[in-house]
Design a protein that fits this description.
This protein is of the alpha+beta class. Helix content is 37%, strand content 9%. Among the domains are: 1-75; 235-286. A hairpin with a 7-residue loop joins strand 4 and strand 5.
Length: 286
């Protein structure tokens, strides 16, 4: 039998625990979606007076059953990535928040990140639909690596501009544009929400989320308006390429907006599209 060092066993155990937590969350999400589907079927039966067989439970499949799930070997980071749920195709991905999400809900302790390169994107998938976003505040790059993240509204604002009239803000939103530069205000409000993402083992590029302080698990503000968060307005890569093609073909911004809203992307501002159109024209001229 190979001689396995205690710290190797600890690393393997931590990895298996993270995978088990992720599978548990997948099961919970599947169960929630299945319950919602059954509720819709029941509502349709009541409205039209006909009966239909209820939808079969997704969790009835033995491969997804918690009772039958068995991990037979230590999962590598590549295997852990395969266990992650795959998102829908980018061209059909909607930017609408799911109705069952809890606003400002923090990621759970032990939340797994598959790689450093995709860390921002994976955190955005959790935070942005819940009304907040995170930014990097520092990192430890030697030994066991870690990245410190803080709420985008953390820190103190520099009040060097006069207060903004609420009517100006509402008028800008109604027109699908940003507020004039002189009317912009900082979104910082001293929020203390923060966490660390730590590499599970040196060189593994598999990361887990950790809260050093329980007091830093809550926000001091409400959910943010997603039109005011540039990261929330970012489109998936495939959709962004389609938008570039439309703009190069001479589509009006209003037509692009109509197409995006039809796919569920309602947070993109007209200003974003005009800026992108101007940048594409500059690139094509070079």
């Amino acid at each position: 039998m190979p001689n396995i060092q205690p710290h190797h066993l600890t690393t393997i155990l931590n990895t298996l625990t993270s995978i088990d937590q992720r599978l548990t969350r997948i099961e919970a999400a599947l169960l929630l979606n299945n319950n919602a589907a059954n509720s819709n079927v029941n509502a349709d039966q009541t409205s039209i007076g006909t009966s239909a067989a209820p939808a079969a439970s997704v969790l009835a499949h033995p491969s997804l059953s918690a009772g039958s799930r068995t991990i037979t070997n230590a999962q590598s980071p590549s295997v852990a990535q395969q266990l992650r749920p795959h998102p829908p195709p980018p061209s059909r991905t909607s930017n609408n928040a799911q109705p069952d999400l809890i606003p400002l809900d923090p990621p759970p302790q032990g939340y797994t990140i598959s790689s450093r390169a995709s860390m921002q994107e994976e955190l955005d998938h959790w935070t942005i639909p819940r009304g907040y976003s995170m930014r990097i505040a520092g990192a430890k790059v030697t030994g066991k690596k870690k990245v410190r993240w803080v709420c985008f509204r953390g820190g103190e604002a520099r009040h060097h501009r006069p207060p903004v009239d609420e009517s100006v803000i509402q008028a800008a939103k109604a027109e699908g544009r940003r507020k004039p530069t002189t009317d912009r205000t900082s979104k910082k409000c001293g929020c203390l929400f923060k966490f660390e993402v730590i590499e599970t083992a040196k060189g593994s590029d598999l990361w887990t989320l950790h809260y050093p302080n329980e007091e830093h698990k809550t926000h001091n503000h409400g959910p943010s308006d997603q039109t005011s968060d540039p990261r929330a307005r970012k489109l998936p890569l495939e959709v962004s390429r389609e938008v570039d093609r439309w703009l190069r073909e001479g589509w009006l911004v209003s037509k692009v907006q109509e197409e995006l809203r039809g796919r569920g992307f309602s947070n993109v501002l007209n200003t974003d599209l005009y800026n992108r159109k101007r940048l594409l024209k500059k690139e094509d001229a070079q």
